[in-house]
Amino acid sequence: MDQSKTNILIMFKNQMVSFIEQLIQQFPQEGDFVVLKLFVDTQVQIEKLVHGWIKQLERNDGKVRKMITTRNDIFFIEENPFKFINDQRLLKFTTLWKTLEDDDKQSIWKWMDLFVKLSDKYKPYLI
């Protein structure tokens, strides 16, 4: 496997785990985030995770990508940002999003920007 491709995959996984750790700190009562972290860290093939994220970003003419770029809250309310990992377990995030302060929302948007940038770096390796 190409070293650059491997580096992007490792970076994506490490950043995803860090993001989930932030969510665990923000929402310690939500056990689903702990399960998600374990799943991402030990169970899922990171390449499948990245492919799923890219697919979610690009479907419907890049609807999700545009939502992230324009900071459209509908992304978190209707799109289920973790759909590419698990459709059902994390629907609670919709409710949680509505309770966040603006600073916390901005922090999460920055994570989404990072995942978009990493996936864009990975796109040339898609088969």
Please provide a written account of the structure:
The chain has helices at residues 3-26, 31-43, 46-69, 74-78, 92-99, 102-122. By secondary structure, the protein is mostly helical. It has one domain (3-121). Helix 1 runs antiparallel to helix 6. The longest helix has 24 residues, at 3-26. The chain is globular, with a radius of gyration of 14 Å. The two termini are 13 Å apart. The mean pLDDT is 88.
Number of helices: 6
User: What is the average of the pLDDT values?
Assistant: 88
Q: Per the principal axes of the C-alpha atoms, what is the gross shape?
A: globular
What's the helix-strand series?
HHHHHH
Quaternary organisation: single chain
Largest sheet: none
Number of domains: 1
Radius of gyration: 14 Å
Structural class: mainly alpha
Helix content: over 70%
Ends distance: 13 Å
Strand fraction: under 5%
